[in-house]
Amino acid sequence: MSSAPSVLVVDGANVVGARPDGWWKDRAGAARRLHEQLVTADLDGDIVLVLEGAAKAGVPVGRDGHVTVVHAPQDGDAEIVRQAHKAAEAGRQVTVVTADRLLAARVAKAGTTVGPTWLLDRLT
């Protein structure tokens, strides 16, 4: 049995920003590439990819297989907190992917936090 979480909430901006691959020149394209990797990744459970700002233009809102894309109306962190707590309240095991320590503290009651490297290692 896999130890993968039943819901993985991904801080899209933080994960994309963890790789110095020129993402800042094309935030929408970077979001699209991350989404494509998540859709084809061998990860158990559901994935919620939270996008904000210019990255939202790269992937439409909606579900694609086991990946649900959510566009943050304003603050990406607030939407990540909302998604994590919503899943936890539904009885799901939640893991948030972010390197943001303040965000990690805000989602601590909902579940655990892992850094972008944890996810990126599973996407390559």
Labels describing this entry:
single chain, 124 residues, alpha/beta, Rossmann fold, 6-stranded mixed β-sheet, 6 strands, 21% strand
Please write out the topology.
Blueprint: E1 7-11, H1 12-16, H2 27-40, E2 46-51, E3 62-64, E4 67-71, H3 76-89, E5 94-97, H4 101-107, E6 112-114, H5 116-123
Parallel strand pairs: 1-2, 1-5, 2-4, 5-6
Antiparallel strand pairs: 3-4
Please explain how this structure is put together:
- The protein is an alpha/beta fold and 124 residues long.
- It has a single domain (7-123), classed as 5'-nuclease (Rossmann fold).
- It has helices at residues 12-16, 27-40, 76-89, 101-107, 116-123, and strands at 7-11, 46-51, 62-64, 67-71, 94-97, 112-114.
- Strands 3-4-2-1-5-6 form a six-stranded mixed β-sheet, with helices on both faces.
- It is globular, with a radius of gyration of 13 Å.
- The mean pLDDT is 94.
Describe this structure in a few short sentences:
The protein is an alpha/beta fold. 39% of the residues lie in helices and 21% in strands.
Named at the architecture level, the CATH assignment is 3-Layer(aba) Sandwich
Summed up, the domain count is 1
**CATH C-level class:** Alpha Beta
N-end to C-end Cα span:
22 Å
CATH superfamily: 5'-nuclease
State Rg: 13 Å
How many distinct beta strands? 6
Biggest β-sheet strands, sense, barrel? 6 strands, mixed
Shape: globular
CATH topology: Rossmann fold
Instruction: State mean pLDDT (0 to 100 scale).
Output: 94
The largest sheet has its strands arranged as: 3-4-2-1-5-6
Overall SS class: alpha/beta
The multimeric state of the shown protein is single chain
The helix/strand series, from N terminus to C terminus, equals EHHEEEHEHEH
